[in-house]
Fold this protein.
Amino acid sequence: MVAFAFELEGYDVASACDGIEAIVTAESFHPDVMVLDIMMPRMDGLTVLGHLRKQPATAAVPVVLLSAKADSADVAIGRRAGASDYITKPFETDDLLERARRAMREPVPVLTTAGTSAGPASLPVEPRPLTDEDRETWDAFIAPDPAVPRWDPQWTVIVAAVIAVVLVLVVVGFLLR
């Protein structure tokens, strides 16, 4: 839904299914703004945001966090992590689009720790891009157990469509009696 809303506004959109894919996509797509859900599979949005802020190629990309977590403490955590904005679910699409536009116009927030400014790229170690080895390690560490069935959004949409068609046929059949 979010991707579709941005596409309708004329934006080129790249989507990711989970946190690791979001990092890989950001590094190759070079977005003008990112909308990150906090609760994502394999790597949460705050961890993704932290990684983006540490990499020179993505440190200046504005990020709008999207979350069902509406508590003021959660919003503060997101802002301190370097988010340009934080919007809670449920949300209005127009509001999200406006906040993304605003995030693109304004400078990316500078991260703060213990009252000092620690710019987006400041790290105790030299930042580096993700390697294939990093991705494999994350996949092995973070990926769910393959023995446990995973929720597949594609099948959810297919099942919902089949149910809707069956309901329409039942209603039409009832009305034609």
Notes: The first strand starts at residue 34 and ends at 37.
